[in-house]
């Protein structure tokens, strides 16, 4: 007896090895858990004991611990930090030498991938075996297979330092890159050319150029992404539009493309009477080459491997199993790059296939069971009606018996009268029979037509139902993944996919034919591409309607890991459940599990000091759900709102900022907030109230903020010394600025001096926000703290947390101020290797002498403070 779907078990063993290492448990505990898990799995497979297995199956069981160990050791190796990391911080002058394996060219840059590279830092330390992503000014004279020497700057990939932020380091780690390199010069030292890969690169460039000639820039970018896997020229607005409607999957090369191309080629070769083995080998080689040509993304890799397994099944005369093919493909990809298991691309690609392969049949069966129960109930009701009708007929027969005797007498009298009438009726009946015969023939024809029409409607209905169920199954499987990575659910994506998916096959075929025709004669390609253009316009029109519908997306925020695990456990039991009663109950449960993905929000005060580079950005979520930003800008991070603030807010499930407080008019405190207010902002974040310091708004920065706010319908107000913002038990007391004192002192023109200073008080918790306070402002705030503290008013004896002024500048946060505030924890917001040298050594020394614990966002990443007003929890994102 054989083991059913062995590749599923092998994949599970490998993933278990990855999971045990990722859990970061002590070695002894890891070994213990591993043994228990493996014994449990083997016991499950061998149960019941009466099963008899062939020798090959016992060999398979021995592979389980081997795959487990491979997964554990591979992840350990992948996560090793390169030795070069210790020798430079962010960027360093360097020289590298290696072989070109890939050349990429877009409108914005040219870059080459160098493998097996030897890296030398400032002609001192040398490291080998690296994979570098090298940006060059010109690719002239560069070919795949060349060995080159480059000089320039080697730069580390940026790690995410805030929740929701794109992790460049992890993304390129999954692709096995170590560093990026900006080349000042590049020299070919060995001109050997990899003819196979260079030919594929040339073909890719040729096909891209043809699509660019046949279509407009926008649609050409969509088609090169769909057919060639090149998303570099994909319009950002179109990509976002597709994402909001849940159809970004059509931009990736998937099983649809591969199966269409592979099966079409295979059938053509068989029609040409090529032997089975030769047809299979040519098809697999073609698909492998197509995979290389398109960059071998995760979805392409999966589809090519699965198609190769299908071809192998055909060659061996065996039945292809979709789940086994999927498991084998996943195992191959993960052994190439174990970190892919944590990437959105891998999980979405395989999740969709599992949804169709496993969830769809179970869902279809569950619905058919319910439908069958309803039909059976209907039959029972019909039988009951027939029995009742029989009783009524029996009673009627007795009543009719008496009536028949009476009728007998009347019939004798009627016979004489009828004799005369029969002669007249005979002629009328003869004429009527002829008319009735004509009507019967007409009704018979109509019945045939009606039956044909009903048959078409029934077939169309079944196709639509199957499309709906398969799309729903895939969406259900992907739901936790979508929320985990993108934090929101496109509400109408299920219905939009029903419109989009059925014509995707036609689009792929037409696009492939058009580019082939264009290779021969451009006008022929232009003729064929017309239909493709209409389909793409249809896609865009549907999506634009979708985003205008009310509630087009549901922003949830990142769910809890436990909730995701429970979701998939319930889904697993739904699929495994075989009893009718069980399936019906599990279907009801299935419809309610979506609520698991909504994260539970405790009613605490949560404050996040974001890492915005050289700047300030502080998010507050008050216990009643009010959302507030104090500043939100940077001098060294471009598009801060788009790339850091908005992803963070979506991670938190926040769409509206109730209050945006700008402490003063320096761009490193408001640039990201201004992005949300500008007219060309196309994101989802909305600001309701903008609060500025009560000063004379003469600078361009304030005028720009006020103008943008008014155009967006945002209410603008000011804070002055003595003002208080109260929300439940949270008090924000404004200690500065004082407009009159500033004008009298002559420091009103210094933006730092009129920074808003807020003292936050929540039960037993106190925090002081200082902006870029310095000079007279710091002196007056110090005096006020000294006068008021201990009186049981707005100023505490000691602050729990101080947001250090002016990014740790030595011109702020003096000894007198620290003596007055006496913070237990000091948080400094500053950028890595900033040009100002913040925080200055003098400030660090003063904070250390005041016995404050110091945290810096450039080291800790985002620092989150969670408090119920009594206890305090500190979370550092990079720890």
UniProtKB/TrEMBL annotation:
A Pfam match: DUF4131
Membrane topology: Multi-pass membrane protein
Main subcellular location: membrane
Record key words, sorted: Cell membrane, Membrane, Transmembrane, Transmembrane helix
Transmembrane segments: 7-23, 29-48, 55-75, 247-269, 276-296, 341-363, 494-524, 556-575, 587-602
Domain ComEC/Rec2-related protein: 226-373, 463-578
Region spans: Disordered: 377-445
Compartment(s): Cell membrane
Domain Metallo-beta-lactamase: 612-831
Bias (Basic and acidic residues) ranges: 377-438
Gene Ontology cellular-component terms listed: plasma membrane
DUF4131 domain ranges (all copies): 31-188
PANTHER family referenced in this protein's UniProt entry, alphabetically: DNA INTERNALIZATION/COMPETENCE PROTEIN COMEC/REC2, RECOMBINATION PROTEIN 2
Protein name: DNA internalization-related competence protein ComEC/Rec2
Protein's organism: Anaerocolumna chitinilytica
């Amino acid at each position: 007896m054989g083991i059913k779907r062995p590749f599923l078990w092998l994949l599970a063993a490998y993933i278990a090895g990855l999971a045990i290492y990722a859990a970061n448990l002590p070695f002894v505990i890891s070994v213990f858990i591993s043994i228990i898990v493996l014994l449990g799995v083997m016991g499950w497979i061998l149960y019941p004991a009466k099963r008899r297995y062939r020798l090959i199956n016992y060999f398979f069981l021995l592979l389980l611990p081997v795959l487990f160990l491979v997964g554990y050791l591979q992840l350990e190796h992948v996560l090793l930090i390169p030795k070069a990391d210790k020798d430079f911080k962010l960027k360093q002058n360097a020289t590298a030498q290696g072989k070109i394996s890939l050349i990429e060219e877009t409108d914005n840059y040219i870059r080459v991938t160098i493998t097996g590279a030897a890296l030398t830092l400032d002609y001192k330390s040398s490291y080998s075996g690296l994979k570098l992503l090298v940006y060059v000014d010109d690719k002239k004279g560069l070919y795949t297979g060349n060995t080159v020497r480059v000089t320039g700057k080697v730069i580390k990939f940026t790690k995410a330092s805030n929740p929701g932020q794109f992790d460049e380091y992890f993304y390129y780690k999954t692709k096995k890159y170590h560093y990026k390199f900006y080349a000042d010069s590049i020299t070919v030292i060995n001109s050997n050319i990899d003819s196979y890969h260079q030919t594929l690169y040339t073909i890719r460039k040729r096909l891209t150029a043809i699509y660019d000639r046949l279509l407009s820039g926008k649609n050409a970018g969509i088609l090169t992404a769909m057919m060639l896997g090149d998303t570099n020229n994909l319009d950002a607005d179109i990509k976002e539009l597709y994402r909001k409607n849940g159809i970004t999957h059509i931009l990736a090369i998937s099983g649809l493309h591969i199966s269409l191309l592979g099966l079409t080629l295979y059938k053509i070769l068989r029609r040409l009477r090529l032997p089975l083995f030769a047809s299979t080998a040519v098809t697999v080689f073609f698909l492998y080459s197509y995979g290389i040509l398109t960059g071998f993304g995760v979805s392409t890799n999966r589809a090519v491997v699965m198609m190769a397994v299908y071809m192998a099944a055909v060659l061996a005369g065996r039945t292809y199993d979709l789940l086994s093919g999927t498991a084998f493909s996943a195992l191959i990809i993960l052994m190439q790059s174990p970190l892919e298991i944590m990437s959105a691309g891998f999980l979405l690609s395989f999740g969709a296939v599992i949804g169709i392969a496993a969830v769809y049949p179970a869902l279809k069966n569950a619905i058919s069971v319910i439908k069958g129960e309803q039909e059976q109930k209907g039959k029972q009701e019909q039988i009951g009606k027939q029995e009742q009708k029989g009783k009524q007929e029996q009673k009627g027969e007795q009543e009719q018996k008496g009536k028949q005797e009476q009728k007998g007498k009347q019939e004798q009298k009627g016979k004489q009268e009828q004799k005369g009438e029969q002669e007249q009726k005979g002629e009328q009946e003869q004429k009527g029979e002829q008319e009735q015969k004509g009507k019967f023939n007409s009704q018979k024809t109509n019945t045939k037509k009606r039956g044909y029409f009903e048959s078409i409607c029934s077939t169309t209905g079944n196709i639509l139902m199957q499309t709906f169920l398969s799309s729903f199954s895939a969406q259900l499987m992907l739901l936790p993944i979508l929320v985990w990575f993108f934090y929101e659910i496109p509400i109408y994506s299920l219905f939009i996919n029903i419109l989009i998916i059925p014509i995707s096959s036609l689009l792929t075929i037409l696009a492939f034919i058009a580019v082939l025709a264009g290779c021969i004669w451009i006008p022929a390609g232009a003729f064929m591409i017309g239909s493709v253009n209409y389909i793409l316009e249809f896609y865009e029109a549907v999506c634009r309607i979708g985003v205008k519908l009310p509630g087009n997306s549901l922003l949830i925020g990142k769910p809890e890991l436990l909730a995701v695990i429970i979701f998939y456990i319930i889904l697993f039991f739904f699929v495994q459940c075989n009893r009718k009663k069980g399936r019906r109950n599990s279907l009801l449960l299935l419809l309610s599990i979506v609520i698991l993905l909504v994260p539970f929000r405790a009613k605490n005060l949560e404050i996040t000091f974001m890492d915005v580079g050289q700047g300030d950005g502080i998010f507050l979520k008050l216990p009643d759900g009010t959302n507030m930003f104090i500043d939100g800008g940077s001098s060294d991070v471009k598009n801060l709102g788009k790339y850091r603030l908005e992803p963070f807010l979506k991670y938190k499930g926040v769409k509206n900022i109730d209050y945006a407080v700008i402490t003063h008019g320096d761009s490193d405190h408001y640039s990201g907030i201004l992005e949300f207010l500008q007219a060309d902002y196309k994101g989802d974040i909305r600001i309701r109230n903008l609060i500025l310091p009560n000063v004379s708004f003469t600078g361009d920065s304030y005028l720009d903020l006020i103008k943008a706010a008014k155009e967006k319908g945002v209410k603008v107000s000011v804070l002055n010394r003595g003002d208080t913002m109260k929300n439940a038990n949270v008090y924000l007391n404004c200690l500065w600025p004082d407009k009159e004192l500033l004008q009298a002192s002559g420091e009103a023109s210094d933006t730092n001096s009129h920074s808003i200073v807020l003292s936050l008080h929540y039960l037993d918790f106190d925090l002081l926000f200082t902006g870029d306070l310095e000079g007279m402002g710091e002196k007056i705030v110090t005096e006020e703290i000294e006068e008021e503290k201990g009186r049981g008013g707005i100023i505490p004896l000691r602050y729990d947390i101080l947001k250090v002024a002016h990014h740790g500048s030595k011109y702020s946060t003096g000894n007198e101020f620290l003596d007055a505030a006496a913070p237990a924890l000091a948080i400094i917001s500053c950028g890595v290797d900033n040009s100002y040298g913040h925080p200055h050594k003098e400030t660090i020394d003063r904070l250390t002498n005041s016995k404050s614990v110091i945290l810096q966002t450039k080291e800790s990443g985002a620092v989150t403070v969670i408090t119920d007003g009594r206890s305090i929890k500190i979370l550092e994102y990079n720890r």
